[in-house]
Amino acid sequence: MPMQPWFTDAKLGIFLHYGIYAVDGVAESWSFYDGQLSREEYLRQLNGFTASRYDPRAWAELFARAGARYAVLTARHHDGVALWDTEQGDLNVAKHTPAGRDLLAGYADALRERGLGVGLYYSHSDWNHPDYASVVHPRPTKEDVTTHPLVAPEGGVEDPAAWERFVAYRDAQVGELVERYRPDLLWFDGEWERSEEQWRMRELSEKILAAAPDTVLNARMLSYGDYATPEQGVPLLAPDGPWELCLTVNDSWGFQHRDHNQKSVRLLVRYFTETIGMGGNLLLAVGPREDGTIPAEQVERLEGLGDWIGRHSEAVYGTVAGLPAGHHYGPSTLAADGRTLYLVCFDVPRESVGVRGLRTPVKRVSVLGTGAELPHRTVGGLEEVPGVLWIDAPRAEDVDEQATVLAVELEGELDLYRGVGRD
Ligand code: GLC
Q1: Mind listing the pLDDT tens digit for each residue in 77-93?
Q2: Which of 18, 141, 253 to mutate for ligand 1's pocket (most ligand atoms within 8 Å of CB)?
């Protein structure tokens, strides 16, 4: 199935790990897997999860201000606690927390009203389901997948009937998500604990697409995903096909009150432009408190990124990956028609900004946002090897606080020299 064009055009999404782990501010699911808390202590957080100030419309407004075009909310993480009143299993916030209601419907409606794509995160694995630790991955890539008591059966003794029940439970939950909330994107996770065959990935993807053929699926559907999901670091080479980097604003996916290591707006602009410059989307993660509010430090950062995007939207939306590394020292994007290059300069340019290997003649260079035109010239070059395009550095008043973008209008479609020079 071809990738939905909205996805590759979206550039920015917001990732929300919202769940009972915000009550004590511990790591989502992992805190009891790793033994930092007992399962009982972890589940005690159910009693403190109120969603008392949950306002998905305010979320949607904020995400739109940030320049995002979609969001992804944890419908159910590895801890098995569903954010909706599922008819499957027993663990959900409607039944077992003071929140006492479905949290997904309001989210999906609010995003749609604001024109944002609706994404739901769902973990295949469920460390709290009685039937989960019933089979063993035949080709594990991590050791504890075959030894951890929450994942593998004791002594490796499998119970195939229990596994069948688990798969039926997962399929029915995913079915509910598709039927009730019609997500544009299903963002799976937890796939590493079983094989593709054990997960019945083909059957699951067929069921989802039969009910909602336009649903985008991430790579954690293994062979049945539509796009790659690098995590927490910009890849050095762009993955093949569409992709999305998921990245936390601080160091945690969910709300952790001890984590104040928030990335600056400048740094977020870097990650964002490096990602879109290589043709990816950025899925930026914030962690709401148990009451549903997003911490002010994270709101400020989303708004700061949104302000930068607002001043430079021409270089963001409707663009594709820019120059490969080496042509310009920084990321770049290219207008979809191939006729304008957008060079991102993180540091204040001194004297000149150079572009190497540009075969297409340049019509005009200006600073995006201020419109200041910049003198430029091509120096050197021999036969088929183009010279270097030197653009005069912008004046101080045209330099952006986070990152300056130079728009290089070309006489035709971008044509690059990629060779080693004359013998
Ligand atoms: C990892 C973590 C998980 C988090 C996810 C986001 O898979 O296990 O906690 O939800 O990354 O990509």
Answers
A1: 999 999 999 999 999 99
A2: 253
